[in-house]
Amino acid sequence: MSERTVLVVDDEFAIRDMLRMALEIVDYRCLEADNIQDAHAIVVDQRPDIVLLDWMLPGGSGIELLRRLKRDETTQEIPVIMLTAKTAEDNVIQGLEVGADDYITKPFAPRELIARIKALLRRSGVGESTDRMQVSELILDGKSRRVFLAEQPLDMGPTEFNLLQFFMSHPERAYSRNQMLDQVWGANVYVEERTVDVHIRRLRKALQIDGKDYSGVIQTVRGTGYRFSSRGVPTD
Questions:
Q1: Looking at residue 45, what is its pLDDT?
Q2: Which residues form the Response regulatory domain (predicted)?
Q3: Is 0.90 topped by the overall pTM?
């Protein structure tokens, strides 16, 4: 199983430092942010397995970031635990209604929080290894960064590999060009939307070898963008 990544979003350095040490002891990789803008960029760029989100933050509340994550199909499945000093019942209800998966109030014991993280990851299935993915005769090996079709290695560039890995991790969902730019290129990289179309054409070409054409798994969704679908697998 690959290393789990946890994003801690809190404006108090002491809290982040304490959580980082507690997480590293149990072999979790820890990312940190002290405001919602930086936190959102990290979520888009690095796709943490879970987010620990403080309610009160500079430049906007954690609830604002939570709403943003849960509105976006590409981030809505990332589990979120709210960390806050707010204990009123209506605050708890608000956080859970917006989409928080769990809620823990300050001060808290790090061991209790780690236990909740582990339970939530088990329940959600987030963080399970996607090193090897397969659709019929198409196999993607994340560790070696190689793709095989009918046991033959395919020749594709790093961006096409990253696109295919993203698609195979999120099958049967339509994504806009902007969403793909955020997820594959990164939120802080500025490239034009038509760049996606160029790399989609290259990816489709790479998915064609003698006697096999899997280019149909990358489907154009009119008015939206693209999706990966096993329905595009050719039938013999």
A1: 86
A2: 5-121
A3: no
